[in-house]
Amino acid sequence: MVTETENTVYDIETLVREYGNDVLRTAYSFVRDREAAKDLFQETFIKANYNLDKFRGDSSIKTWLIRITVNVCKDYLKSAYQKNVVPMTQVEEDSLRVEDDHEQIENADRDEQIRRAVNSLPENYREVVLCVYFREMSVADTSAALGVPEGTVKSRLARAREVLKSKLEGRL
Amino acid sequence: MDDFDRLLKDALDSDIDLEGLTVDEDLVASTLKAIDEAAPRKEEIRAEFDQEFAAVAAEEVATETVSEEVPEEATAVVTPMYKKERFFTGRRIATIAGVVAGIAAVVVGAIFLGSGMNLTKKSEDASTTTAMSTATEDRTESAAESYEMKGAAVYDTEAPASPVESAAFDVGAAGMAGSAGSGGMGNGRIAADGAAADAASEEDGLYYFDDDEYYIDQKAETSDLLNNVFMLGDKDLYKPILDAVRAVAEGEPEVSNPMQYSAESEEAEEPAAGDGDGSVGVTANDGSSMAAVEPEADEAEEEEFDINDPVQLKEALEESQQMLKETGGGPSDKATEVIGSIEVNGETVPDFEYSPEKNPFWVEIGDASDEALSEYSPLIVIYDQDNEADFDVCVQVYTDRCVVYDFAFGTTTTYSVTDGQALADTLREIVGQ
């Protein structure tokens, strides 16, 4: 489980430990389900392990892993199972929290509205927003991770922002 | 990063559900174990990987270039950015056009059922322009409001465009937008009232965007198809659709089975523009007031396509998507070599003359003549100057207005383009410049 790519040796366990959180959170941001995210996490690293020799170093290893994650998530979301089975509603743990700080409550409410607005974007736009704002990836890395031209990333980002602003107008 | 960006980032970062979502030793161990256990499937996994990446690559690459001459309608006030290899067989055209016509039929059928056909004399009321100008001013209204086909029910009496053809796309737009403009009509134009459109939406959710969830899967697939159809900008492609809708508006005899069309055989010739020989038949649920444009060509291999059958619809969509992949549905390498400009009402629309320094985008025009401009309402697909970004937006230009179809977000908005500036401003706004 060790692969050498242009002078860099990658060990899958090291990758799991070093980039695991990025992969797991990316997966979660797509599927919004912890258990599914963990399954997809495993699938991502299984694929990464058996295809490490195909990594050419055109992008960072992290970007490459995120790209695999995105592909795995997209497949999951497109699967017939996912379309036909609605996951059980997760217990809103935060609803049990005691929020005695009014401003904190307002901020939490605002953030929730923003996340909902992001999640309601078309997939092509949502994934760009998640990569850039959530994963803090550059346009170039996002382009590499999603497999779309940089110009498309920029345009989708611009349009997504406009739509989000429109949807959230008066609420922020 | 401005304030909005910061809010956005903070909101995503602060997702409460992410708290505690970290990789623990159990997950690491189980993952490593899963990797070991997957060893026998190594080749299968590698194949899957290649397939996934190939699929992404195929989506991003706009393939084949060009071989055809520019149509000689070259008094063109509109110059096409590039041309695509003609790849439509009669069957292919019928497949795509039929699906789109079917969509129109759903809407038209619903309109007829919901409110009946309501033909009135063309209004000579000069307030039409005012109404459209209002639509432009309302550009900044909420997304839900922008779904309305403002100005769809009005028509400039001076406009040479065929009313029925306009109706075709207005109706189609109503289908995409989920609601249509108010029910006025002019000279055979079909207009949908909101109630009818809503009823239709409930009746067949496939073809409607609603305000709350505008991009559910089925709708996305439908809009993808429409997007591609519009992107092709091939007059031959949508001529049968226009003919079908014209036939509907003129009350030609019905076709028996609602929501079906006849696909002509593979051997049939492509319908030539103006011949009206596309094989699209459109029917209403009640079978009345609807019609078909019968193919004059070979009908030997007729097959029925039930647009209400999700399986058939999916197959048709996949087939059309595959065709686009095979033949090239996007801009060619040569696209940037040609300059496009557009003229409306005798005046060049500002900022449409391509200039990388001044203009952040260029336009592709589906048809290249003023005749087409007036008669077929050519479609524009917007890309950026690097020929990379597809904004998922098409603009349909009439002599007195333009209709912006936003396929990504499922909106349709009508703008006055009497001064040209509105259109330019609209497009600039769309591309975020």
Walk me through this protein's architecture.
With 172 residues, chain A is mostly helical. Chain A has 2 domains: 2-84, RNA polymerase sigma factor, region 2, helix turn helix motif (Rna Polymerase Sigma Factor, Chain: A); 101-168, Arc Repressor Mutant, subunit A. Chain A is built from 8 helices and 2 strands, in the order ββαααααααα. Chain A has helices spanning 12-31, 34-51, 61-78, 80-84, 102-119, 123-134, 139-146, 150-168; strands at 2-5, 8-11. Chain A has a two-stranded antiparallel sheet. In chain A, strand 1 and strand 2 form a beta hairpin. In chain A, helix 1 crosses helix 3 (61-78) and helix 6 (123-134) crosses helix 8. Chain A is globular, with a radius of gyration of 18 Å. Residues 86-99 of chain A have low confidence and may be disordered. Chain B is of the alpha+beta class. Chain B has one domain (90-430). In chain B, helix 4 crosses helix 8 and helix 4 (90-115) runs parallel beside helix 10. Chain B is globular, with a radius of gyration of 23 Å. The two termini of chain B are 16 Å apart. At the A-B interface, helix 1, helix 2, helix 3, helix 5 and helix 6 of A face helix 1, helix 2, helix 3 and strand 9 of B.
